[in-house]
Amino acid sequence: MASLVANKKEYARVHKNFQRHWNAELLLRDLERVNPKFYPNPIKEAPSNNPVVKTEQEDLKEGFLNKKDFIKVYKKCGAMLHADNPLGCQSSYKYYENAFPDWRAKIVALLNCHTVRLVGFDGFWLIHMKEDADDEVHYYEFNLVEPQSS
Fold this sequence. Notes:
Blueprint: H1 2-6, H2 8-14, H3 24-34, E1 41-47, E2 55-59, H4 67-81, H5 93-111, E3 113-116, E4 124-128, E5 138-142
């Protein structure tokens, strides 16, 4: 939803009545049309060997909630929000009990340390959901810098 809010004007230009959009699969597809890099990019940081760079960033390759997982989890949770049809298949609460810890871990891995890219902005935002100093969310704006001539 943060990407939708951050790109509200651009999204509204492309999609009328976007306030009524609720289908996660279609919403992600439409957001991607407006901003191909809208989805949070989970990273890990490590100390840099370069003396002018504090940390190096590396994209996570697995273990986080990717877009395909997001749609699956959204559909599963949405099914739980609606009453079971007494004539249809009943929900398997054991399935949710077993799946939820994995979903939670993947969501934490996605958001714990991630980058965000906005439409019309060449840089990116680095988001830390928690830092050692406190339990607050921190964000840092990174912009492209022209190289200085010597």
